[in-house]
Amino acid sequence: MVQHAAEEQLNAMEFVLHRVDPVNKQGLHGLTAFEGLSPMDPPNAYAPPNIEPAALEDMHPFLRHLAAEHVPFLRELDAFEETILDIRKNGYTRVADAQLRHFLNFFNEHFIAHHRHEEAALFPLLKRRLLETGEHGGGPDPQTPVDLMQDEHVKAIQLAAVILNFLGLAFRFRDQQTRLIILDAALEQGKFLVELLRLHVFREDNVLFPLAHRLIMPAEFEQM
Question: 99-135 burial string, b = 16+ CB within 10 Å, else e?
């Protein structure tokens, strides 16, 4: 009965993984800056489209605060990746398990709050300005960089939940081989989460925040 329930949970998580497939997560979102690019010759993810640069020290304190919150999170992300590599090399230990769970707790307590703050205070006005200035994709539902950031927020939360559930699920199986397969799946999703979040932070620091600096007035930041 326990194993049957665990298999049902595994099937449910596989369904979620199809929704956050890392192969598709960088799919084009209709932004005009990416039109005409071939999937056989994709742009460098860390070479954003032509965005007028802005020095962090010139930005409003609201944006500087958001950027500052990225710094400790990137340190935690580096430690999380090191733990994944260590497990691949030396095996799964209690110490490694505690380190993985520490990151997931940090993600849940700090980064989700960071996401929500951005989505509640910054994103609505910035999206409106991007639509007003024509900095969006075409079609009946024009997409902006804000939509991409919100989509990545959701994908990151889903991946973190899948990793946590895989870790809990693995030890519900008595079969050692099954455990190892599920733990390996958890680590693989951890790698995808690291990749997603590093790129996400880069995009916010180098694309989204400069856009906000240019399109939002200081008095409007004061109200956030």
Answer: bbeebbebbeeebeebbebbeeebbebbbebbeeeeb
Q: Provide mean pLDDT across the span 109-134.
A: 95
Return the structure tokens found at 198: 């590093």
Q: Kindly report the length of the chain.
A: 224
Higher-confidence residue of 42 and 108: namely 108
Please name each of the domains of the chain with its CATH number: 2-11+56-222 (1.20.120.520)
Phi, psi of 135 (to 5 degrees): -95, 75
Compute the distance between CA of residue 165 and CA of residue 167 in angstroms, rounded to an integer. Answer: 5
> Residue 23 phi/psi, 5° resolution?
-65, -30
For the residues 163-191, what does the mean pLDDT come to? Answer: 91
Write the CB contacts of 139 (distance below 8 Å, at least 6 apart in sequence).
30
- Please return the burial class of 160, using the count of CB atoms within 10 Å of its CB with bins 0-12, 13-18 and 19+: buried
**Angle, helix 145-170 to helix 94-106, in steps of 10 degrees:** 150
- pTM, entire model: 0.80
